[in-house]
Structure formats: C-alpha cells, structure tokens
Amino acid sequence: MATKTPLIATFLQTARNFLLTLGCVYVVLLALGTRPYFQRQLLYMNNLRLPLFARYEMPEKYDLAPFKTRDVRIHTADNETLGAWFTFADPFYVARKADLLSPSTSADESIRSALRAHPTILFLHGNGGTRAVAPRVRHYQAFAARLRANILAPDYRGFGDSTGAPSEVGLVLDARASWDWLRSHGAPPESILVVGNSLGTAVGVQLVSALEAEALGGNEQYRKEGEPHEIPRGLVLLAPFSNVETLLDTYYVAGLVPLLAPLRIFPYIGSFIKSFLVHRFDTLTRVVVGLKLPLLIVHAENDWDIPHSHSQTLFDAFLEEHLPPLPDFTEVMAGASDEAAERIARLSQEWRALRQELVTTSDIARVGHVEVFSKDRSHGKVVFLRTLWGGHANLGLVEGVQDYMAEMFKMG
C-alpha cells in the first residue's frame, strides 16, 4: 500500500495542475470575448474557410452535376462583393441539360429562365465554413430535387471568396443584396422562400422583417428609390436561437462543453461579460415586433449545439398577446398559503386551456411533433416542427422536414 501513495499523490497533483490550467485558459478566453475583434472571430468563425483551397468556380468538384450550379458575383449596397452559387432546380436542369452544357448558352439568360419557371430558395448558411462545405452542398442537392426549387447560396462578407469583414449590419446587407440579385434577374417575390440555418436564421429574420416593414410603409432603410413593395413566399428557420445573449447561456462548444455554465454561480460576472456584446442578433425582439408572412420554425431534439428551447421561445412569442401573463410561481416556491397555491393552480390550468385553443398540435410519425398557430394571421400561419433527430447542421436534410416544407409552401 505504501508504494501506491506516491502514485496517488502524483495523479492528484497532475489533476490539480490540469484543472488550474484549464481554468486559466477559460478566464483568458472570456476576457478576449469582451473585445469586438475576438467576438467576431468566435461568433462568425469566417476564417474557418473550409474546404481548404476551395475552387468556387468549379462547383462540380463538390459533387454537383456539370453546369448545374453557377458561380456568381453579388454586389452589396456598401460596395462589397459576395461569392455565391446558383443551383438550378432539377426539373429545369433535366429539361435544359443540353443547352446548359453548351458553351454558347448564356448563363445569365439560363438563370433568368429558371427563376421564371420554378420557385427559388435563398439559403442563408450558419457560421464557419463556406458555400462549398459538404452538408451545405447536400442541402442544395436535396432542395433542387425534392422541392424542385432553384437555390441561391451566398457566402457572407468575409466568408469564402467574399470581400469585407462580417458584422450584424453587414450580413443583413448581404442578405438584402442577394434578394435584390434574385429580383433583378426576374424572380417574382412570391416565388422566393428564405431559408436560414443557425446564424442564417437571425439574418433571415432581419431581412424579412425589413421587407415586411417596407411593404407596410414603415421602414425605408434598405429600400431603393422606385423599388416596389415585396414580401417573400415565406420564411424557414432551421435551428434558430432567440438572441446571442441567451445563446451564450445555453451554447455547448462542440456539443459537449457549456460555454458560460461555470459562471452560473456568479451571475453578475456573466451579466458583466454579456454587457460587452456587439453582435446581438436579437431574433426574439424581431419576432415580437411581428412577422406576418408564413413562418416555419424547425429544431431537432438532438441538437447539441443550440437547444430546441430557443425555438419554443420564438414560437411562444407569437402567442403572448393572446394569453394572460403566467402566474407567479415564486409564491408557491416560497411556501404560499393554500389559498394562494389553489389560485395559482387554477390560473395555470386556465392558461393551458386557452393555449390549447390557440395552438393545434399533432405528431408526424417518426419525424416529430408539430404546433400550429394561425389566429388573426391573415398572411399565413406559424408552425413549430420539433423533430426527433436531425442534429444542428443537417436538420434541413431530414426528408420529413423537406416534405413539410413542400406541403406548407406548395413546392415540390
């Protein structure tokens, strides 16, 4: 037994040193996170330019059919240039394959024809990587085949071969430039479905919010002189977050390490760190302000990056004006009287009953659970589809999700 003591002591000392080093690294990272430059690196990860040495002018290298995807340039209102891929809908590609393969065929005219013939998805991707990353390419392929739609997939400023550096305002300008590019090439606004994944959901909400505000005459920020009022076909949010501040409380690095969980015992420190946030992407506020168009929110139960509670919060925001405030449960926790506890229980039951009247719920076998809210929404319903699987980056590849998109937005 005596010979084991030094080994145990050495192990404990090594463990202490490891934890101390880990703690120091954590503190340094938190301190760096208060600086705008490092915030940008952590939030956007735009310098993670995967795949390495990508040949954007050659989409075929990334498993796309010959000349089915065209590399295009999009110019923004503040003079940045975005790299983007335009993928033809499968029916269009099959019918016009001989023309598309011909060197004499104008790519611009083919794009215009496709935009007139089929609906189009404006795909706004998440952080890190580029438009050539394999899971994103698989989205283009699936949407082109199963939804029979064209896809425009831009890389935000600072991503891929796009110029500039990312920012919240900048990404929204990029989304608007992509919308304007589609419109200038002949896509009717009602044929464009905006689809965002992760970070792209926050960008998509701000784009659509601005378009709706213009249509209602309340916001001219992004509108060009003489430009008509426009509203897209709908909006799909794949694995969204309510805002960056809440995301910091719930985000797991690599799906394993909680970002700010160690600070929960020191709430003031967490609040102090979040006070330095520059990029907030407050989707919840945008939703509360009131999107009018058809909206599909999708989140997987096995999303280890962003919990599906974020999507539930966004969906519930549409119900708030129709429901009374929830009773204060702190009274019960503090040992309220029996009379107060009974009153709270009664109010809670009434609240749940009223919510059931507003929300239609159903299950899709082997796909997930659906909640639908449509009261006083003349422009379209709000749907929350909570899937059983799909993870985070691959959620849009779940065929059950694609089927629901096709049904809700009359595509495919």
Give the C-alpha Rg. Answer: 24 Å
Strand order of the largest sheet: 1-2-4-3-5-6-9-12-11-10
Secondary structure: helix percent: 40-55%
Structural class: alpha/beta
Provide the domain count: 2
Mean pLDDT: 87
**What distance lies between the first and last C-alpha atoms, to the nearest angstrom?**
72 Å
Notable characteristics:
ten-stranded mixed β-sheet, alpha/beta, 412 residues, two-stranded antiparallel sheet, 15 helices, globular, Rossmann fold, hydrolase, 15% strand, Alpha/Beta hydrolase protein
Give your account of this protein's structure.
The protein has 412 residues and is α/β, with parallel strands linked by helices. It folds into two domains: 7-39; 49-322 and 371-408, Alpha/Beta hydrolase fold, catalytic domain (Rossmann fold), CATH 3.40.50.1820. The chain is built from 15 helices and twelve strands. It has a ten-stranded mixed sheet with strand order 1-2-4-3-5-6-9-12-11-10, with helices on both faces. It has a two-stranded antiparallel sheet with strand order 7-8. Strand 1 (69-75) and strand 2 (81-87) form a beta hairpin. The radius of gyration is 24 Å and the shape is globular. Mean pLDDT is 87; it is low at 219-228.
Give a brief description:
With 412 residues, this protein is α/β, with parallel strands linked by helices. The chain is 42% helix and 15% strand. β11 and β12 form a beta hairpin.
